[in-house]
Every structure is written in C-alpha cells, then in structure tokens.
Input
Amino acid sequence: MKYPISVELVEKSRISEVDFSNLVFGRNISDHMFVADYIDGEWTDCRIVPFGPMLMSPAIMALHYGQAIFEGMKANKDAKTGVPLLFRPEMHIERINRSAVRMAMQPIPDEIFMNALNYLLDIDRAWIPESEGSALYIRPHMFAIDATLGVKASDNYRFVIMTSPVGPYYPKPIRLLVSEKYVRAFPGGVGFAKAAGNYGATLAPAAQAKEKGFDQILWLDGIEFKYLQECGTMNIMCVIGDTVVTPNLTDTILAGITRDSILHLIRDIGLKIEERPISIHEVIEANKSGELKEMFGTGTAAVLSHVSEFSYKDEIYTLPPLEGRKVGPMIKKVLEDYKKGIQPDKFNWLIPVKKTILITSHK
Ligand code: COI
Output
C-alpha cells in the first residue's frame, strides 16, 4: 500500500444515541472519520480516528478564500447478504478531482479515496441504516489549511471523510419558486464544481423562497433568465409527453451522479430522453396544454424528489397529482432497489466493502 492507513477506534460507540426510526438528514455523524493531509507536496498521514473537533487556526485559507470542496455519496447494505455496497464511488473521485482542479486544490489519489471508504465503512458498518429510503450518507471533503492571509492557492490541504445515517431528504413533494433575481452559477464560473461557496451563495435566496412558502428555488441561467438549470441542490428533469427532458450539462450545472444513473435507468427501460436547453416558457406551455406530466429533482441526498408546483412571475403552475405519475416513482424505486443489490448490477455500479486488516491501532 503506497498510502497506509492507521486506525484509532472509539472507546465507546455513540450508536445507541441514534434514533434509527427518525433519521434527520445530517444530524448524526458516525463514530469514525478518515483524515489525510497534503503537506510539503505529498499526501500523508492517512488515518481513521474517532469523529470529533479538529484544532484549526482561524487564518486557514479555506475560511477566507473559499478553497473548500465536497462530495455527497451513499452506501446501503446488500438486502440479501448485509455486505455494505458503495454506489459508483469512482464517479465521485472523478468529480471531487474536477472540483479540486477548478479550485486550484490538490487532487486526491484514487487509492486513498477508495481505501478510506473501504476502511471507514467496514469499521462503521453498523451505522448503515436498513429502513426504506434510508442510507449511509458519505461526505468526503477537502479544504485549504495554510494559515496565511495572502490571496493565493494554499500549499497544504486536509481531506476528510465522515458518514451519517440518513432517511429521506424531502418527506413530501416540493414547491419551487423560479428565481428571476438570483442565479446559482455563471458561465466560466464554478457551477459545475462541488465547491462549498456554491451552496453558501444559495442560502439567502432559499430562505426568501421559504418565507414565501416554497421549498426550493428553480434556478434559471444568468444571461437570459430563461433556461432551467437546477432546483435547490438537485438536477431537474421534466416529463413532457412521453419524453424525459433535462438540461444538458454545461459549466453552470453540476454533473449529478444520480442524474447520470437515472438517465441510464430511463434509457434502459426504453423511454425517450432529451438532454437540451429547456426554457421556462416551454415548461409553462407544456403545463397549460397538459403535456407536462411530471417534474422532479435528482440528487444524492434526495435521490428523486417530486415537484408538486412551481411559481413564475407570481403565477402558480400545478403539476398532475403524484398518484397518476409513472416515470418518477418507478425510477426512484428501481434506483433504490439497485443500490441494495435487489436488482442485478447490470451497469457494475456497486462496489462491495471488503473486510479490512487493521494496520495499527493506537488505543
Ligand atoms: C447531494 O445531493 O449530495 C447534495 O449535494 C445535497 C447536499 C448539499 C445536502
């Protein structure tokens, strides 16, 4: 192993404090975390340690200049064997490294990422929930740790992975407010990267939408305020007639791994897909003519979240009731079953967690 991992286990697990029948997204963090540091030009000191606070200088560059990126991924247990299954981890390594390059940070070697996930999930396998709609949410992230106020790319970074048992993200269909004032991303910017600042910048607009009774914002492009981009923190898909239509990927849209998986599954069952620019006016026309059958957001956290209504220029547009929808509910079930090994893994998306040999144990 080029990057050996040391292991320090908790003295006492916190798992008995978790109410697995009521998992609020992100509230419970599992016992252990993985940490590695990029120091003096190399990744070093890979370690599994008890999850907990870290001592950091208030001058670290992540806090001032936003060199902070993350991933969101999930694992479930195989419904038959109980083996933890990672879902498409290689897509997440590729994406975090695309984010790293755009943010002038250090890519993380595949070996570190994969071994860290394997160790962490092996050790904390008891934290993977099994009820319907639940999963172990995995949060790899990296941030700049040079403690200096000059504006430049940091020389040193910390990479951390923590995990959290989660239930469904949105318990019911969501209402969207089409924003004509705020944008999530701009051409040439960092919208395609999973940069922490992309999320921070949406919080005030999202809070304003909440005050008006909406769950999330439906983001339009920042040039014409015309073309659909994303909704909340998710990619957006519409079913218009018999076709699933979704915005084509550009540098203002995050290349969702759930988006990609759902498109594979839709194609696999023979439905038509169009990845192309979709204007809000087309969606409204389709709604008026009865051709807009469904609209849903897709993302790792929410998986697939049905849209019940959207508002544009103070008009409310209502989507057909959930009971009559065919594509979204079916695809969500297929994807969730797939992640638990209930369907054959025909796309080779599942990586079983292996039993690890603990290399060193400090405690
Ligand atoms: C995800 O679906 O993984 C997201 O990025 C949403 C997250 C910020 C909660």
Q: What stands out?
A: The chain has two domains: 5-167+349-362, 174-325. Residues 82 and 225 are 48 Å apart (CA to CA).
